[in-house]
Design brief:
single chain, alpha/beta, 2 domains, 4-stranded mixed sheet, 9 helices, elongated
Length: 284
């Protein structure tokens, strides 16, 4: 008997085909993201010298297969964030000793209404990917956000010698920036001055928010100003061999035995360069 297909029958068949295609699409997304996740775990452990174990929490049954696939991708970016922290030796040591596992989950609630998006508890990093209803395919900006969220959290919460990791990880950057300023100073003055930070007593927030290289760089700026003429260059060459910068609640400056010591309060002020210049005018 020939089957007569009505418009309704054709519609049902079409919908069934779409449902099958959607299911296959979701399966493909999950498969691709699972591969990315396995690769990210391996890369992070290699970069950090660690053996971090990944555990996926059971998602809610109300989440779709596509959403679960996105959560797997979010977990991938969490591991990419961990790897980013290991770009420095101190970060590598902190991660390998303090992060033993990652528990990945997903939530439909905002972080402030449910569990924290990222938390570190007894060596286990808890990560929750927040499902955004109505967003079928998050863009690359979302994945970058997830990666940075995890790396920033670890920089703030991993501890090294009683201070947050960022306090130690930022030191090489600040020293490099100050060294770059020093090159210009020595070129202008025809000198061979060396410079260093005295990190003693410098609180972590001062390192993160105070930009030590910027404030200590003011001393180099003023030395360059002194070298504007021959007499200034000779004075600098004869009396300044080393500059030491540090933090102090009260600003101070001294020059003894060829060492110029400048302590800054890391507060915005227009008279900082004037303060240094007036001192050098009398000391040189």
């Amino acid at each position: 008997m020939r089957m007569i297909r009505t418009a309704g029958t054709v519609g049902v068949v079409a919908l069934a085909g779409l449902a099958t295609a959607d299911a296959q699409s979701a399966k493909d997304v999950q498969s691709a993201n699972q591969h990315l996740l396995a690769e990210a775990v391996a890369v992070a452990n290699a970069a950090c010298g660690s053996a971090i174990v990944m555990k996926r929490l059971n998602p809610r049954p109300t989440f779709t297969a596509i959403q679960r696939g996105h959560a797997v991708r979010g977990c991938t970016e969490a591991f990419n964030g961990i790897r980013a922290v290991c770009d420095t030796q101190v970060g590598r040591a902190a991660v390998s000793s303090q992060v033993k596992g990652v528990n990945c989950g997903m939530t439909g609630e905002l972080p402030d209404r449910g569990e924290p998006a990222v938390a570190l508890n007894r060596g286990a990093l808890e990560y929750r990917y927040k499902i955004e209803p109505g967003v079928p395919s998050p863009g690359e900006g979302r994945w970058l956000y997830e990666r940075i969220r995890v790396s920033d959290y670890l920089m703030d919460h991993l501890q090294v010698e009683g201070q947050p990791l960022f306090a130690h990880a930022l030191r090489p950057r600040e020293e490099h920036l100050l060294d770059n300023d020093l090159v210009q100073t020595n070129q202008k003055c025809g000198s061979s001055i060396t410079v260093m930070f005295d990190w003693t007593g410098m609180a972590a927030p001062a390192i993160k928010d105070g930009s030590p290289s910027n404030y200590c760089g003011h001393a180099l700026d003023v030395v360059q100003r002194v070298c504007a003429d021959r007499a200034g260059r000779e004075a600098v060459a004869n009396k300044i061999q080393r500059i030491v910068c540090g933090y102090a609640v009260k600003r101070s400056i001294s020059l003894e035995d060829g060492v110029l010591v400048f302590k800054s309060d890391f507060q915005a002020s227009e008279d900082r360069r004037t303060f240094i210049f007036e001192y050098l005018q009398n000391a040189l």
